[in-house]
Amino acid sequence: MTEKKTALVTGANKGIGYEIVAQLTALGMTVLLGSRDPQRGADAAKALGVEPVTIDVTDPKSVAAAAAFVESRYGRLDVLVNNAGIAGGWGQLPSSADLDEVRAVFETNVFSVITVTNAMLPLLSRSPAARIVNLSSGVGSLAMMSDPDGQLAELPASAAYVPSKTALNALTLQYAKELAKTGILVNAADPGYCATDLNGHRGFRSAAQGAAIAVHLATLDADGPTGGYFNDDGPVPW
Ligand SMILES: NC(=O)c1ccc[n+]([C@@H]2O[C@H](COP(=O)([O-])OP(=O)(O)OC[C@H]3O[C@@H](n4cnc5c(N)ncnc54)[C@H](OP(=O)(O)O)[C@@H]3O)[C@@H](O)[C@H]2O)c1
Asked: pTM for the whole thing?
């Protein structure tokens, strides 16, 4: 067992996840760069000088193998960042939604968070101060989405990605509720609109800027919040 904190970031071969790995590494953590594709993971990990872990979050066997690897190498996990996500058919309207696409988005963005978190919980439980961060989005906010004068009012309706992030927020809260007495803090991060492959690089923030709130929530003190939803400016309305 090592004294240095160990973190795992899923979907970290590019985009916001990659930057979360870079920033946690700069803070002195041992960071495992999760990637579903071994080669993409190896290339990204080499660029950052960290260790890659193959983990396809939608494949329970891959997730179990990643957990076994972390256990054999480090004995415990201090930080889990559930970052892997897909946009799917952002543009599909609820009335004409392709249900297979909706299911695929929920599989990656919501159900897989349960698979990965539950596989890692025994390892997180061995940490004196474990943190779980779920990469949500401002679009998951029902309060903001339903505000007719708000900044999200002009967005087209979305049957998959948007509801998946609202569901992830709900899941975050329920994990926090269950783990309240364990010292494990569980929070959702809204990185803002960042230029990544997810949105064809249309975002106006950098991936590094988006990573900062996740890194903040991954490094909370013991008296930090749990069951919250935050961006750089503070709490985001549910
Ligand atoms: N960009 C934004 O403006 C924005 C805003 C709010 C929230 N977010 C959230 O931030 C997170 C990161 O997004 P991003 O913008 O950095 O997107 P990105 O550049 O497209 O990166 C997404 C990452 O998730 C991985 N991934 C997808 N499916 C996976 C699976 N089944 N198993 C493991 N990894 C998988 C991708 O791997 P491959 O390379 O193999 O596809 C990639 O590494 C997502 O949860 C996203 O919803 C992004």
From this structure: 0.98
